[in-house]
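Whiteboard transcription, Tuesday session. T.W. wrote the structure tokens on the left side:
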């Protein structure tokens, strides 16, 4: 019986050694994999690492001198002598493979090839923390995330020095093995939201995760919906504000953005600058955004419907001007509207792909030249050109880029329905959109809250923003454990000394 167990154990050990050898043989096929064998008189050993992942200064200053001096004392003694914190001794082939690919140095004794020492010596190339590129604000902090997860978490902890700020890390992606972090404040965030987010991330079956935007799409409640169900942001202050409300934040390595949820539709039209400005100005600007988005979606479809079917609604004073502008146009309104819309989309896409200075020039000059030329050539009317240009301008008022893309797309089906059914077509499209939004959820929470279901307590920061003295409680939608931000009864009501 003992001989049978010993034979099985030796066979298992030999199989594991062969597996490690196969991994090392695979590494050797790459030209940046370095392997040095030192034939020490007492203890011969090997050092292996990827030269493109290892910091050469740490290798020559903190690793090699101590290995040469203490290798004869064994790996355990050597581990205590090397002045690096992350050192481990293991025989797990999977761990060895993963660590070496992350920039660890592998030290293997020729006398005992089962055990290997892994020394952390990775080199990291990071850009400095810069200003926001997408969510730029005139007032407030001017820091944005970078592609380093540790740096991004540092920016969050600097703003929220709380022991209850919990971070759960996991790896996602079969090939990339991207490190993903889930952040929440214990005692405020609803644990059901945290569990749901963790489960969705763990259930992802995909080979590569290159950016947090890919995770955003994979963990959405409805992956077929054109409406974003989580807010993407590059600003640490916005993430900090979301955490204090009870939201769950997801960040991934190699991504300069984070996303959080659950969220609502009205939150996509809220900017951080709304909280840095006086509440009167912030409320006015926020209402202006809602008006601009409504105008951007409906202006061109309404024009098409009125000109095609409901021309009796046009005032007499304006009718002559419209007739004069369309007298030489050979196309129906839908054709000239689609022509102008596609032209603006082409200019916008070209400006985004070209270098910054060239892109701005192309956008301005191209818009002026093509617009003026199309009117003079009789392809479009000048009134429709003004409407389409204002609609494009209004669409840029959306603070969140993902929602801006949605607004760009949904205008086209509404215009097509308006061309065939007139005002009824517009109403049908709006009803379908409203029905979809009513059914839509974010982490299982209603997407149209506080409109549907109606929650008047959350209207204080929806379509307008009230003073901060009204923010004594956190949003009802988050279902936070701690609902109170501060004690409203203790708000100072006495006069100041100088009053």
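and on the right, the sequence the group agreed on:
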């Amino acid at each position: 019986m003992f001989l049978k167990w010993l034979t099985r154990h030796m066979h298992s050990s030999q199989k594991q050694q062969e597996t490690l050898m196969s991994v090392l043989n695979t590494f050797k096929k790459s030209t940046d994999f370095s392997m040095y064998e030192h034939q020490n008189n007492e203890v011969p050993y090997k050092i292996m690492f990827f030269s493109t992942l290892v910091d050469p200064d740490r290798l020559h200053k903190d690793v090699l001198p101590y290995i040469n001096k203490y290798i004869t004392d064994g790996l355990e003694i050597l581990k205590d002598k090397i002045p690096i914190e992350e050192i481990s001794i293991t025989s797990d082939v999977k761990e060895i493979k993963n660590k070496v690919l992350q920039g660890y140095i592998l030290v293997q004794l020729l006398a005992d090839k089962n055990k290997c020492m892994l020394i952390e010596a990775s080199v990291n190339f990071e850009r400095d923390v810069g200003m926001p590129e997408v969510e730029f604000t005139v007032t407030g902090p001017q820091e944005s995330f970078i592609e380093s997860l540790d740096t991004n978490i540092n920016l969050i902890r600097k703003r929220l020095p709380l022991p209850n700020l919990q971070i759960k890390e996991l790896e996602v992606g079969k090939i990339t093995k991207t490190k993903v972090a889930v952040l929440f404040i214990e005692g405020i965030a609803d644990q059901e939201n945290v569990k749901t987010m963790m489960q969705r991330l763990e259930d992802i079956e995909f080979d590569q995760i290159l950016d947090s935007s890919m995770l955003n799409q994979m963990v959405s409640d409805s992956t077929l919906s054109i409406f974003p169900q989580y807010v993407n942001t590059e600003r640490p202050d916005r993430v900090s504000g979301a955490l204090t409300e009870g939201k769950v934040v997801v960040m991934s390595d190699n991504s300069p953005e984070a996303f959080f949820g659950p969220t609502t539709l009205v939150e996509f039209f809220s900017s951080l600058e709304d909280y840095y400005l006086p509440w009167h100005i912030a409320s006015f600007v926020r209402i202006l955004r809602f008006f601009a988005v409504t105008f951007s979606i409906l202006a061109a479809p309404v024009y098409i419907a009125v000109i095609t079917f409901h021309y009796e609604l046009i005032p007499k004073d304006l009718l002559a001007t419209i007739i004069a502008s369309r007298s030489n146009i050979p196309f129906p309104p839908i054709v000239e509207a689609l022509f102008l819309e596609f032209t603006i989309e082409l200019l916008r896409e070209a400006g985004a792909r070209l270098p910054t200075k060239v892109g701005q020039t192309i956008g301005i000059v191209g818009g002026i030249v093509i617009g003026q030329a199309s009117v003079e050539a009789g392809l479009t009317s000048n009134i429709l050109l003004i409407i389409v240009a204002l609609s494009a301008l209004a669409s840029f008022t959306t603070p969140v880029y993902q929602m801006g893309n949605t607004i760009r797309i949904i205008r086209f089906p509404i215009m097509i329905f308006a061309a065939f059914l007139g005002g009824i077509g517009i109403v049908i499209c709006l009803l379908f959109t409203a029905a979809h939004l009513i059914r839509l959820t974010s982490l299982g929470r209603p997407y149209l809250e506080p409109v549907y279901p109606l929650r008047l307590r959350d209207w204080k920061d929806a379509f307008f923003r009230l003073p901060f003295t009204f923010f004594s409680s956190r949003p009802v939608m988050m279902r936070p454990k701690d609902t109170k931000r501060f004690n409203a009864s203790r708000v100072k009501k006495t006069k100041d000394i100088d009053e």
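Someone added at the bottom: The longest helix spans residues 279-308.
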